[in-house]
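Table S2 (text version). Query chain:
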Amino acid sequence: MSSSKLVTMANQIALAFQAQGEERALPQIRAHVEKFWDPRMREGLRVHLSQGGDGLDPLALRALAD
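Corresponding structure-token output:
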């Protein structure tokens, strides 16, 4: 899956949890990706993050950065 598609999906997840506030949203975004994304998708996102995470919503970036 392309990194642009993964970024779009991660940003959609962040948007869905944004209203709960950062403290609650960050672990829920992380948990959602771990639970519902297959290992190839998670690896693609890790690679994208290691290259700077361009295009990721700031909330998604904070939630998913190691």
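Notes on Table S2: The radius of gyration is 11 Å. The chain has four helices and no strands.
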